[in-house]
Amino acid sequence: MKEKVERYIDESSEILQKYPYLDVYAVTRFNENNASKTYFDAKQIHIGSLLAEISSAIEKGAVIRYRPFEFLIVLFSLTAYFHIVFNSFQKIEPNRVGENQMIATETLLNLLFNGKTKNGTNGP
Over the stretch 23-74, which tens digit does the pLDDT of each residue have? Predict the structure, then answer.
């Protein structure tokens, strides 16, 4: 489960580096017409199996403190917020992008799977 989430974080980061306004576009598009319903109807089977996998990971103790749907909300929220902040830091510290990416991914994984950051502070 952790590897799958890490892959999601890495892939979404790569996509958002190429298309930095994709999150804004998606939210705008989903609010128009029935775009979100059409999108999520097509993904319903995949989301159901993902929620079942998250539920299993929670039962095994690999994921703490969350119900499956909460886990997805926290994952998507933290990832989206990370990209907003990360893009700002790229302008401040352009020579440390790779290092900052690794720190951010590690922090997100620690918050989701351990409930704490590396330095021990509590997560959401």
Answer: 777 777 766 666 556 655 655 667 778 888 888 988 888 887 678 888 888 8
Q: Which residue type, as a one-letter code, is found at position 35?
A: A
The answer to whether 72 touches 8, Cβ cutoff 8 Å, is no
Residue 92 tokens read as: 């401040």
The gap from C-alpha 26 to its chain's centroid, in whole angstroms, comes to 15
What does the angle CA 104 – CA 106 – CA 112 come to, to the nearest 5 degrees? 100
The DSSP-derived string for 20-31 is TTHHHHHHHHHH
Largest CA distance in the chain: 45
Q: Are 30 and 37 in contact (CB under 8 A)?
A: no
Against a cut of 0.90, is the pTM above it? no
